[in-house]
Amino acid sequence: MPWPLIKQLHVAFALLTVCSFCLRGYWMLSRSPRLQASWSRWLPHVIDALLFATGLAMAIGLSISPLTHPWLAVKLLAIVVYIIIGSIALKRGRTRGQRVAALLLSLLVLIVIFAVALHHDPWAGLR
Ligand code: HEM
Q1: What's the pLDDT tens digit per position in 84-114?
Q2: E-assigned strands of 29-111?
Q3: Quick count: other Cβ atoms within 10 Å of Cβ 62?
Q4: Environment class of residue 106 by beta-carbon count within 10 Å: exposed (0-12), middle (13-18) or buried (19+)?
Q5: Deepest in the core among 88, 109, 116, 122, taking most CB within 10 A?
């Protein structure tokens, strides 16, 4: 498969992840039972797995390593932070306040991930 196509797929899965996270965030805020539906639990994992697989394929194929490309290291670190805060927002937060704060923080971290990826710069183009 040619790299531009894999990159397009990666970006499409990245946008799908954002849409799915925003939708589940809205369901959390509106206390919708849809948040607990079985498909709304497994579908995001499928999208995330495809996002990760296409990212990994590009990183290996284009010889881009977190050790040689600081922007990828920062992006992967930010993804780990996003996964932890995101799970507090949608699942593990004990109070509504905690969940809302975690939701806002996750959206901020998502913006950082996109900025770092689009600029290929660990400073997200701010420096
Ligand atoms: C929340 C997760 C992720 C988001 C939102 C995201 C977002 C993006 C975006 C928007 C681009 C396109 C940048 C451009 O147009 O130049 C991109 C490219 C890329 N991403 Fe991701 N990504 C994510 C996860 C990953 C993961 C897990 C990896 C690696 C394991 C990865 C590796 C890459 C690589 C290698 C490129 C291509 C860089 C190039 O063309 O030089 N991404 N990502």
Answers
A1: 999 999 999 999 999 999 999 999 999 999 9
A2: none
A3: 12
A4: buried
A5: 116
Report pLDDT digits (tens) over 54-94.
999 999 999 999 999 999 999 999 999 999 999 999 999 99
Q: What angle do CA 102, 71, 62 make, to 5 degrees?
A: 125
Q: Which two tokens stand for residue 7?
A: 């990159």
Residue with structure tokens 């394929």? 57
The reply to whether ligand 1 has any atom less than 6 angstroms from the CB of 3 is: no
Q: Does the beta carbon of 19 sit less than 6 angstroms from any atom of ligand 1?
A: no
Q: Is the CB of 55 under 6 A from ligand 1?
A: yes
